[in-house]
Amino acid sequence: MKFGNWGLIKKNRSGVSLSLSLKKLIFEVVLVAIAAFIISMTIITERERRDYGVRDSDNVLKTLSSNISSDIEKYTSLSRLIMIESRVIDFLRAEVSAVSMGMINDARYGIMDILNSTEGVDSVMVIREDLIIVATNRFTYNYNTDLMNSEDWRREIYEGNGRAVVSLNSYGIAEKADGRPMVSIGRAINDIDTQKRTGLLMMNISTSVFENMLTRLGYNNICIMGTDGTFLAGNREYENYFGDEFLSEKIRHRNIRLGGKDVLLSGCRVNDLPIVILRVSPYGTAGIPFRMLYILLFLLVVFTLMAVFVAIFIRQNITDPIFELSGAMERNKRSGELKKIDVEVPYSELNMLEGDYNSMIDHVNELFDELVEKEKTLQKAEMRVLQEQIKPHFLYNSIETIGFMALDAGADKVHDALETLGSFYRNFLSKGDREIPLSREICIVKDYLSLQKLRYGDILEDEYDINEDTLNFVVPKLILQPMVENCIYHGIRLKGEKGTIKISAHLEDGELHLIVRDTGVGMDAELIEKIVTSRSNTYEQNSSSFGLWGTIERIRYYAGREDVVRISSEIGEFTEVEFIIPDMMHPGA
């Protein structure tokens, strides 16, 4: 790296301050911690509030389900007492002809004696197999005789085999005149002696039983529904939230909006009864783990204080010493001298940074010395190349004059040869440029080979395989002509037979691959190794090797790397030299 670029690098980086970056980072970390605390607090609070609401609803629904089941079981036991009441049994066993109004009244009185000590039973119907009915009604009922005569509604009761079957609204065979719903308990009645079915019993329970239960328990946020969607008791505002999801005995929960607030809707079926309980409960502060929140808040405060302490520590022990190092480096730069710095820093890591900078200064000084030596070597190589060429400007003008004289004398071939020679020197001079397009370099070689063919005749042939996309690639001037000259004098001519020089160029991975191949005498591996690996100018005294070595050194200098050449050869067959010029030589690179 050149020292002149150091100021540019510092300028490009000076827009970002390490101290400000660390402060910004710590501030962002604290903000993230606060945001995480708020989010965590919100999540924990909402989760605990919901969990508390779910637990509370579970307890209420389980308690209420148990109470309803107990009440239904109480009325089921009451129905058993009615089934074994003697006057009811006599009514069921009597022949049709023996059934009188007196027997019916006796059976009714027997039922009433049992019901007198119990509230909540609206009516009891005992129906014989021949559809003669004994009924005790506390309210006015309307009967559906057509439905009563059908078998459909009785089939479910008969399948219970004497077990109580709970349903709603007496399967539709009887309904209150005021339209209020009721819960019905139906049982098939079998004779206790013959076990023959003698009829069935239908007990209708008033929904006031459930209303009284809710009032007694203080539940004003409960709605009791039938599985068919019939409202039975409780808060009627909640009946619209009834759905099939609550037909399971497992308690279900979901959030709903009620009065602009989020509330918890819970519901389940009461065991195997056709009754569903819905409960709506608001989310309150109950269940919020305030102790946990206080602990989290305390940890946040501790974390914030630690972050502030870390920021102060970093500023005093890292950024300030770095600023001191940077100031020393800046003063070193302004002095214009590459010398080491000596700054007192508190930690070994910063001492390492200071040591690395001083090592870099030593290395840069070494690079300067090496660069100066390379420049001298390059200039000597270029001077040697130029010294070996005939290039005075007056010679080009003289050649042009002689060419016109030859043309006037009718010596066309001489004129053409002089034109070729003039073209060669025109491209050769190239206005003093060190780099030229590959197309002009090819023209120099073609002119040079045309002149050599005049000398050697048919012993020399040339071939070209140049890709179009390489013609504008900029290369160091006169890298091909010395190679071609080396092919002629130290390859083909020494072989003593006709030879071919082939020049190829193509792009690969953005790099120019320039190949010169001749069918001359070749060279052994030892000579190839010396040419490729030697970095001294010992070949200057050997004119047969200087052209190749000097060209390699020039390309290495311009490319800024060592691996720019590959040489392959076979004694008596060929020699192939391949130059790899990176894309940095291209004008658009």
In a nutshell, what does this entry contain?
This protein has 589 residues and is of the alpha+beta class. The chain contains 15 helices and 19 strands. The protein has a 5-stranded antiparallel beta sheet with strand order 2-1-7-6-4. A 5-stranded antiparallel beta sheet has the order 9-8-12-11-10. It has a 5-stranded mixed beta sheet with strand order 14-16-17-19-18.
Structure notes:
The protein folds into three domains: 49-282, PAS domain (Beta-Lactamase), CATH 3.30.450; 388-432; 433-589, 2-Layer Sandwich (Heat Shock Protein 90). Helices cover 51% and strands 20% of the residues. The protein has 15 helices and 19 strands. Helix 11 (412-429) runs antiparallel to helix 12 (438-456). The two termini are 19 Å apart. Residues 1-14 and 585-589 have low confidence and may be disordered.
For the record, the CATH architecture of the largest domain stands as 2-Layer Sandwich
Total domain modules: 3
Determine the CATH superfamily of the largest domain: PAS domain
Count of beta strands: 19
By CATH, the topology of the largest domain is: Beta-Lactamase
Strand content: 15-25%
CATH class of the largest domain: Alpha Beta
Coarse shape: elongated
In DSSP terms, counting alpha (H) and pi (I) runs of 4 or more, how many helices? 15
Secondary-structure content class: alpha+beta
How does the major sheet shape up?
Answer: 5 strands, antiparallel
Task: State the helical fraction.
Answer: 40-55%
Radius of gyration: 56 Å
